[in-house]
Design a protein that fits this description.
With 300 residues, the chain is of the alpha/beta class. Helix content is 39%, strand content 23%. It has one domain: Acetylglutamate kinase-like (Carbamate kinase, 3-Layer(aba) Sandwich), CATH 3.40.1160. The strands form 5 sheets. The protein has an 8-stranded mixed beta sheet with strand order 5-10-2-1-13-15-16-14, with helices on both faces. The protein has a two-stranded antiparallel sheet with strand order 3-4. Strands 6-9 form a two-stranded antiparallel sheet. The structure holds adenosine-5'-diphosphate (ADP) and N-acetyl-L-glutamyl 5-phosphate (X2W). Adenosine-5'-diphosphate binds next to α9. InterPro entries: AceGlu_kinase-like_sf, AcgluKinase_fam, ArgB, Asp/Glu/Uridylate_kinase, Glu/AcGlu_kinase, NAGK-C. Its EC number is 2.7.2.8.
Length: 300
Amino acid sequence: MNESPRDPRQVVEILSEALPYIQRYSGKTVVVKYGGNAMTEDTLIDSFARDMVLMKEVGINPVVVHGGGPQIGQLLARLNIESRFVNGMRVTDAETMDVVEMVLGGLVNKSIVTQINQCGGKAIGLTGKDNAQILARQLKVEHRTPEMTASEIIDIGHVGEVEHISTDLIEMLAERDFIPVIAPIGVDRKGNSYNINADLVAGKVAEALKAEKLMLLTNVAGLQDAEGKVMTGLSTEQVDALIADGTIYGGMLPKIRCALDAVKGGVDSAVIVDGRVVHSTLLEIFTDAGVGTQITDHRD
Ligand SMILES: Nc1ncnc2c1ncn2[C@@H]1O[C@H](COP(=O)(O)OP(=O)(O)O)[C@@H](O)[C@H]1O
Ligand SMILES: CC(=O)N[C@@H](CCC(=O)OP(=O)(O)O)C(=O)O
């Protein structure tokens, strides 16, 4: 590589500028939702893993909840199984559920764990089935097409919503310097598996852990207004208005809803972060500007 050497004084100055942020977040929990679209390039996975390790080293407790939608889609395509979505949720029959569990609980979870461990961290991979920590129930989806006069409730298979999160295993690991990495697979009281949207799991985990911050890494620069301009910060009231006028739609809807629920449920702030930016999580935590859209339940 042909990089010019950095002035050591600059490096020290940058480190020193991070001090107030390190003090602000030290001992606090930050839940990071790492979406499948933000793990498509090796450099992004590596910078994400390094960021998690650095956070842990300075006394912050990162808890990772990951997705893997595109990765599930790839394996389904190889097996000639069609991917179908209703309201942003994957229609999940028994065969698809097997693939979801293999990809999220196996391939994706273990590759994030390995990458963090390669960077010197101590990552432990879990699904919601471990300690039955993500108790789920079937999600009933309300569906309506323009031709329909009224909406109907449809069954999209093994798709779940969170009923309860048990935090004891996550807290025990975090206290012992481990970084928990959680796949969004839930289980009901009978032992049935559920495929849950990773944003929803991250929001509920953040609420249950009383996290300081929820970071949702995605493939856009942030929440855009009607003119396409990224909004840096907004309150819960503004979000409600943007949903009502249709500015927020599609995959952003569950993301924003879970961010709103999390801040209403006691998480200090939720932020939509551009996961395509290298070191996006550190930029968000350790700089004033941040890199995405922040949602808070208070005006300060
Ligand atoms: N107001 C908005 N601002 C930004 N993106 C939006 C907005 N409304 C809808 N979207 C869409 O939401 C998408 C992000 O959601 P999604 O694709 O589900 O992300 P992920 O896979 O990371 O969970 C964006 O790529 C964009 O197409
Ligand atoms: C019910 C449902 O749709 N589950 C998602 C779970 C993975 C996910 O949420 O992944 P991303 O965050 O990468 O989109 C799915 O099957 O794709």
